[in-house]
User: Fold this.
Amino acid sequence: MSRSRTRTFDRFHTRTVLSVATALGAGIVLASCAPGGSGGSSSSAAPTSAVKTDAASLGDVTLTVWDQEVRGGQEKQMSTLNAQFQEKYPNITIKRVSRSFDDLVKTLRLALSGADAPDVVQANNTRSQMGEFVKAGQLVNLDPYAAAYGWDKRYPESVRAVASYSPDGATFGSGSLFGMPQVGEVVGIFYNDAKMKSLGINPPKTWADFDAALETAKSKGEVPLVLGNLEKWPAGHVFGVVQGRYTKADDIRTLGFGQPGGSWTTPENTKAAQTMVDWVDQGYFSKGFNGQDYDPAWQGFSKGTGVFLIAGSWLQADLSTAMGADVKFVLPPAPEAGGTPVTTGGSGLPFAVTNTSENKDAAAAYIDFITSANAMKVLAETGNLPVVETQQQTAADALGTDVFTAFGTVSTANGLVPYLDWATPTMGDTLGATVQDLLAKKATPQQALEALQKDYADFTGQ
Amino acid sequence: MRGRTARPAGPPGEPRRVGYLYVLPGFLVYALFALYPLLRAGWLSLFDWDGLTLGTWAGLGNYAEVLTDERLRAAFGHALVLMVFFAVVPLGVGLVLASILHRARVRGLSFFRTVVFLPQVVAMVVIAVSWRRIYAPDGTINSVLSAVGLDSWTRGWLGEYAFALPAVGFVGTWFETGLVTVLLLAGMSRISRDLYEAARLDGAGPVREFFAVTLPSVRGEIAVAMTLTVIAALKTFDLIYLTTAGGPGHQTTVPSYEVYRQAFELGRVGLACAIGVCLTVVIFAISVVITRLGDRASD
Assistant:
């Protein structure tokens, strides 16, 4: 009896000692205060030392560059420009790390908060990426470099806006420049020219034409509008185009940059949402679009399914290869005759310099090189859409010429509006799910816009 | 032999304190890679932290949000639905399949066992991508339906609000059934022939035999199978991420997907940790219940 009690006590005792020890140990470890406290405290203020633009005089430098230029022409332009840069500046070695976009988005946050962050990174323009990094003081304010290299003169305001933040990261679309994009993006309408001719449809010049064209295509048994929306975001681009039909560009900009003062629940936006629902009712979209993959959808279009495809310029190379002269690209029609077309677009992922970089001058020189006039030429030659001086370049093929013309027109005419999901950190998800709800008729246009308004208002604090 | 009386107290076979020393290396590894991250996650869950800048103390605010946010609550609800598809249905199917294979003494049993088990060998990524194709509007299921004249039944399975979750769940059923079947088959092969003979002498048919002999004998295996499949259901991420990304709308989000989304897409590391901790607690609770039931049954 007594022995058993001793045993119990012994065991109890050991266990207590152990757990106290564990708790203490854990306590010591955990007492390391609030997370994110150490490091990363450097401010995003402009560098005080004078900017050096002569890259050749910087001595032996190794630059680690993270990019996501992994596909076809993107990969080609990057490796060409890197080779040219190394040839021009043998003292600078480029250590290139390229990852797919998805991979980059996932790993960049951790990489930037680590001790040996890369020097140059390609960061998505969005608040959840670039905005957060700016807020954390991890990216270098490029304003001094922009002045030194003349970026502020070569790059139009509308293009710099999509890579600009206030130094605290709170305001998107204005403030200081934190990145430099190489390529432009524009959402527009691809159409199957051969099929249009056989159906007797003329390329639409007005929205009324477009409506009529959709109806004709439907009545002749074709899929009028190809859409694969399993990934949630593709229909957001369609909505952006339709919104440009009714809502003023400046209003869309306020919403898209998540700046206070806008509203989703306006009659114009309601009309846009209603149009999407009407298109579903008329059966204009591909069957089962919410369960259809994006890639097979446009690949189907390239093989002859459907008449129109509302999508971004990034599909140009693939569609051109598959369809040759049968495919054409136009901007959405202007809201009223003679007006400016309004459509979603912006830049590719901007290149930014990290604050932990020990060679900020070399990093900026590299960015200058890959966004120079010569670089724009290389970009055009490799089938990319140069973000500036677009119309001076010759595209690789007919579809490329369409895209160059479209982007040049809309960017100089101030008709380019930002991606709607840039507005708030949660908007990508909210927009995707809400438009899916809208198209599946789980939400009325009013309910859908209220959902978007809530996300927007929660963020802007209205 | 006298020298070996270093042992302080206790009867032979009683664990000595020095035993903890033997456990230490394993415990250290476990503590470093499992306990420390868990504690750290628990600690982080008490902060509002974006993963980059200084976090601010939030107390239990993140947990309150997990419980009150409709969408996060729905995610746990979806996980419970998936439990039915990942655990309950495979158990039913597995029991039937295993007892048939066990009873019938089929020729080429190992072949069937391999076929049934095959999904377990394939990486979930491959499975998800294949099933995405199968469920696509122009995929296998719809082609078959059209071929037999059921055109009106065709749909984009993963994009339909009513069908998306069951469609994803069915992939789980297909995936887990093999594991459950093989586990149960192993259990059944250990049942003594005498028991069946006795049952038959008492006039039991195949069904009676199943309930009186087979089922009670494999309770241990059932508990193991349930534990494994329930955990798989609750922590499923890759399948959701690759098939529906939580869509359509938010119909198929699950807690682990929310952890990823909050931490890596929205930069709300504290909330993500809180969801993770809640998920751990739920998994732990359910596992304890299942193990208890299994233990009680085998006593």
Notes: DSSP finds 19 helices and twelve strands in chain A. Chain A touches chain B through 51 residues (CB under 8 Å). Chain A has two domains: 55-183+348-388, 186-346+422-460. Residues 1-32, 38-47 of chain A have pLDDT under 50 and may be disordered.
